[in-house]
Amino acid sequence: MTKRGKFITFEGCDGCGKSTQLKMLSDYLTQNGIAHIFTREPGGGKISEAIRDILLSGKNMEMTDECEALLYAASRVQHLSDRVEPALQEGKLVICDRYVDSSLAYQAYARGLGYEFISQINSFALKNYLPDVTIFIDLTPEAAFARKKGADQNDRLELAGMEFHKRVYAGYDALAKAEPNRIARIDGNKTPQEIFNDVITLLKERDCL
Ligand code: TYD
Questions:
Q1: Whose CA is nearest to atom 5 of ligand 1?
Q2: Is 98 in the pocket of ligand 1 (CB under 6 A)?
């Protein structure tokens, strides 16, 4: 029987440098011949990408917070079936850009829907798939926004403002404190190469590489 692959998620505030790290990790895994898939939330499959378009469209500013939370969960459960589960069963390493901790940081903490409600709807959506390791790129929104240039003007979430993103950061900080065994905090203030070295060291320590 094939050994189940490891499930790794990347989390952090908008503009924390996740995309750069994911690209570097992708190159590393390819060069080292490690079987893997990269995917993302919301999205990652046909239906979940369609849900992503609804969620992130600047035309949907009147969406209620509850609708938003349920759509993220709906996208998650579809994406798990379409992409994550099959790859894990084939023994591949699954790297996912955002997962349930994004819903906890953004919807529970920042939108104020509360940990209980978001945990509840996600306990259904997760199908018992919790990441083996979650990498939280720890960079405050102030530092992230200073770095990020040319943000997409039509992104509904980018328009939410600094106060919102500060609450997102506080949410991640609380989650990382509550679950230190799963959520590894990596200092996002370092150079991309230093951060990447930290990521690789951590993944080796956690038996993922
Ligand atoms: P994206 O453009 O992929 O941003 P990033 O590159 O920062 O990951 O947009 C994803 C946005 O969706 C991001 O602002 C976080 C938000 N989000 C939630 O609010 N809840 C969730 O459960 C997920 C998965 C994402």
A1: 14
A2: yes
